[in-house]
Design goal:
heterodimer; A: alpha/beta; Alkaline Phosphatase, subunit A; nine-stranded mixed β-sheet; four-stranded antiparallel β-sheet; B: two-stranded antiparallel ribbon; 25 helices
Amino acid sequence: MKRRNFLKIPAFAGLAYMVRGLPIRAYAQSPLLQAITRQTQATGRVLVLIQLNGGNDGLNTIVPLDQYSALSGLRSNVMVSESKILSLSGIQNTGMHPAMEDIRNMYNGGLVNIVQGVGYANPNFSHFRSTDIWTTGSDADQNLSTGWLGRYLDLEYPGYPTGYPNNDMPDPPAIQIGTGISNVLQGSAINMGYAIANVNSFYDLVNNSVGPAPNTAAGHELTFIRNIAQQTEGYTSIIQQATSLNTNQGSYPVNNPLADQLKIVAQLIAGGLQTSIYVVSLGGFDTHANQTEGTYNESGPHAALLRQLSEAVSAFFTDLQGHGIDQRVTAMTFSEFGRRIKSNQSGGTDHGSAAPLMVFGPNVNPRIIGHNPVISPDTTVNDNIPMQFDYRSVYASVLTDWFGITPQAVNGVLMHDYPILPIFRENSATAVEEITGSISAADMLGQNYPNPFSRTATVSFTSKGGTVTLQIFDISGRLVRTVLQKDYIPGRHEVAIDRSGLAAGNYLYRLTNGSDQATKKMIIID
Amino acid sequence: MGHTNRRQFFQQVTGGSSVADTKAYSIAEDKIFQKYANKELPHGYAKATASLNPYSGPWTETQVMHLLRRTTFGVKAQDVATLKGMTLDQAVYYLINNTNPNPAPPLNYYQDTYADPTGVPMGQTWVNAPYGDGSVNSLRRASLKAWWIGLMLNEGISIQEKMNFFWHNHFATQTNVIGDARMCYNYHAMLRANSLGNFKTMVKLVTKDPAMLQYLNGYLNNKNAPDENYGRELQELFTVSKYNNPNYTEDDIKAAAKVLTGWKINTSTLTSYFDPSLHDTSNKQFSSFYGNAVIAGQSGMAGANETDQLIDMLLAKFETAKYICSKLYRFFVYYNIDANIDATVITPLAQILVDNNFEIKPVLTALFKSAHFYDVNNMGCYVRTPLEYILGTFRTFDMQLPANYTVADTYNAWNYLRNYSLNIGLDLGDPPNVAGWPAFYQTPQYYELWINSATLPNRMLFTDKAVNSGVGNGPNMNIKIDVLNFTQQCTNASDPDALIDYVCSYLLGVAASATEHASIKSILLSAQQNNSFWTDAWHDYVNSPNATNTAIVETRLRSMYTYITRLAEHHLC
């Protein structure tokens, strides 16, 4: 039974509706009931970051079919056979590793965006250094002590953790599962992530249990402190409530550490947490030796990892869809680097540089951005795949088109302007958020003046030629007026907006001109 | 007056103002604490069985660190090395005799905030200056507390500060009740000078000290209007106590109060004196508990001698020696004293105290050399007090105040630490009442009282900030852990397993479990499996400490120390 249906059942006298075996009326005015309310209200967007530790072999993940003959000469001992490669709907020259059937199906279903050749200039081949570059968002020769998402969360939740949790943000800004404490969430003062050390500790927390302790005085006090720590951690009850609400989870593959983590993430999202960022990881991608097995190089350690990734991500989105909340969620892979074009004599591949990156969810643009790498048959052991897109373009696109923050704020987080890639569908930036659709859009649409206004306001915009549409939306995203829709010559223009017929309140106005769009907020007062 | 009435009593004394324990937090209403804290004294666990006989086992880092954890405000690597180079006997002797009974007094650090109206310049001491006014007096009390924190923070290998704190908790007074900062300092200096001296001498000094006369209104106790306050606490809290339920009577309280009549305070010289005209010269009859003793009433200045006779009588009861030794045990070992420990540890210690005419050092020496103290079942069970948590972070990580700090900066930094300790449950200089801190006497919770809904999150926040962004009075006054410096103390820091074992031995009272060790290691290895990743990164840093190589190891170390200091084991020692 779906939670919402459950709540619609009228509370007939004498009937005890049960939540985890307890009558619902026992929870009148309880935190649980509040949590149920919150669950139905949570609307915020969620990014799930999937870190592939060790450096994923991009050439055996997203396979450039038009380069196959060159690749089979350069890495015959690891290259999966052409006949086994999965084809993608509508794509001629690019396929997927045979272990990634689920992700292939997601792609064909419009749920996957692939960005080719993501990396950075002057690639570093150290696991640690390159991981730090990716997690902090630095240049290759720059050292940052904060993470790119830590800086974003600093903006969203200033002063954290002082004053949190609070009514506006009762939930952790970010949650990380496994691998200790990730640098990606390091803010200027403190790590912004609520860390769940491992899958077991999550279920300990949910079940109000703590780890085993020796039967000594020290063990007695240790258990006491662990219990107090668990109960006083500001978010324990929030997480317990969220999980208690969502017991009807979809099915997940077993013996799949990523699936174990994503199952928890789905449970928390469905439980109504407003947490906007989750960080999970899958390790073992450092395949220097014996990367593949099988007649067609279609199995082995790397294939097993890709299968885990594929099945976990697919189960995750199926689960979210079952709860009707998949629209709120985007997931994205990253790895510290790709692997070398030319394989080594150990049946593996050494550290490389640029590699494809995948973004999942119903709001992504279901296409491949960028082109297949061009592989020369003369490639040497020192050659690497050139970068097509700076990895921070992906970050900037997520911040802009998914989280909807302004270009100025993106610049503050990433310390530079990066081109926005069409990772997300154009309409995914709904009118409830102030976003700009492309890098050039910063001055494409001006702020209305005066603002707020009570009768008329003026808006300036720049046309690149062709049809320009200016529309006003209320904050729920409903179109309330089309101000203009006609051809404009390239250049700067102005248009007046008359508020008559519009109630006082907050609105957004969106300009579209060809493939570009920009949105800004305006306020009408009486 | 029983324990429960003390607070109301002080509200009367002080007109309801400046009483500790008036914060909104109430442990009685802390449902989480009440759910998990002891409902009865723990039982059924593996207890220490070793006796007070001398310890003859190995003398390794484990024993040295256990000794230093319990006798200082935080274990330091250099101190471990020093003591490990000695024998156990030498180490205990050094610890107990390397004292600091008369440090340079606290200073005017407040001049730029409020100019001292008595003319004490910045950087000079105020302890011998005139009173001035209320404003400077409160700043001087802050100066005293800050200075005291500084002494704990910077102490070498010595039991001095712990013993000083022990007596502060035992002969508890509150600076905000005493009022005059100079009297508070003098009382502190008296306890400090006698911390490792003679208990009998100390009781006599405390009883006649102006601060104590003020605090428990002994100065109001006279033949016309006896005030039983001090007579009661002297027996109930300072000497025979309620340990093992001695059956002294209410009449004994009254008789003691009569003995103690006549003591007054000279507020200009800040000394006490005996006024025979206020002394009750009648004979004082005590109960059968005291062998029906009579202290004969004396007139004139001889009346003052009755006080010493009373104290001699109280200390002649073996209950007093046992009580003091039980308090030392709960302060240095563990709170749960069962019949076996009472018989095999407390009683022999008490006999040592009596046999040595109440000298403290022989008792401490016997305890810290005993097999009982080093019994593995006595390790890691002590909940670090707020001071040990905060100062221990500074001491163990070797956090230093910047060399360019002025006197004002230094005192402000110490005051920050003092204030943080207050916020997590221990206001140095101002215990909740004359009984001291409940964590040392309140059965059955004892130490667990330090850890509750209000204090634990703020403990964790302190170390989180110390590791990641720094602690202190503001953005430009932040002191941050030098994780590289601390890590380099491990001679085998390139081996991730050895490094984790090393740092956990300093930071955790209970060894990390295999699961915890694996989690810590996954931080050092960035979730990968190969130890050499850390080894190479560390070697790169050591051989070529440029910005990038430094950042690579520093990033992982900060995450690691954040994780370790968030563990429950970090609160134990």
